[in-house]
UniProtKB/TrEMBL annotation:
<dbReference type="Pfam" id="PF09931">
    <property type="entry name" value="Phage_phiJL001_Gp84_N"/>
</dbReference>
<protein>
    <recommendedName>
        <fullName>Bacteriophage phiJL001 Gp84 C-terminal domain-containing protein</fullName>
    </recommendedName>
</protein>
<dbReference type="InterPro" id="IPR018964">
    <property type="entry name" value="Phage_phiJL001_Gp84_C"/>
</dbReference>
<dbReference type="InterPro" id="IPR011928">
    <property type="entry name" value="Phage_phiJL001_Gp84"/>
</dbReference>
<dbReference type="Pfam" id="PF09356">
    <property type="entry name" value="Phage_BR0599"/>
</dbReference>
<feature type="domain" description="Bacteriophage phiJL001 Gp84 C-terminal">
    <location>
        <begin position="120"/>
        <end position="202"/>
    </location>
</feature>
Length: 219
């Protein structure tokens, strides 16, 4: 049986211990300097029971089952702002600060400080809380709308700790991974990391007919 005062229910639900490193040691309690490492892994699935949480410990072999390398797809596979993308998301054009004005639902609220940004600018972006119960935590933005001159933000998931009025945050622009957005919004077409011209399912399923369209020209 394992117990720790440092592992709380709120932190588990908040994802703080997701993929946490785990080491299992065999220790001589009479002389704790005598020890040997028996196993190393990471926390996997966590199940919640009536009285406790049950955590799966995945071995290092679990890494061998993960996808390595790139996937050929029409949309970009880079993360906005990383080295492969190259966009500076700390640029004031892509970064804003604000605070909660009114809570609409557990994950939607109106916000101040974003009046200079068009509707949808921060959709699929990230929001980092700088004050309040969620300070230091980052979450994804599902939607950014402007209603009556007021910014309305909807988060992908409701925080474990409740949002309160006046909670401050930093928000960064989002990208839907399309070539059109890369060029129009970020002027970054040269660094686009997708393959927008690969044939889609319609081309794969197309079959020969007598009425043209199969003379070898560009589809």
């Amino acid at each position: 049986m394992l117990t720790s005062e440092r592992i709380t229910e709120t932190d588990i639900l908040d994802g703080r211990w997701d993929n946490a490193a785990v080491e299992v040691w065999r220790v001589n309690w009479a002389d704790t300097g005598q020890r040997v490492l028996m196993r190393r892994g990471a926390i996997g699935q966590i199940r919640r029971g009536r009285l406790a949480f049950v955590a799966e410990v995945r071995s290092l072999a679990h890494v061998l089952g993960q996808t390595v390398g790139r996937t050929f797809q029409a949309t970009c596979d880079a993360a906005l702002g990383d080295a492969r993308c190259g966009v500076d998301i700390e640029n004031p054009a892509f970064r804003g600060t604000g605070a909660v004005i009114d809570l609409l639902r557990d994950r939607a609220f109106t916000a101040s400080g974003l009046g200079g940004f068009a509707s949808g600018w921060f959709t699929f972006g990230t929001l980092e809380w700088t004050s309040g119960a969620n300070a230091g935590r980052r979450t994804e933005v599902l939607g950014h709308d402007v209603s009556d001159g007021m910014a309305v933000l909807t988060l992908l998931e409701a925080p474990v700790r409740s949002i309160a009025e006046s909670d401050a945050f930093i928000i960064r622009a989002g990208c839907d991974k399309r070539l059109e957005t890369c060029g129009a919004k970020f002027a970054n077409t040269a660094s686009f990391r997708g393959f927008p011209h690969i044939p889609g399912q319609d081309a794969v399923l197309r079959y020969a007919t007598k009425d043209g369209g199969h003379e070898g020209s560009v589809l």
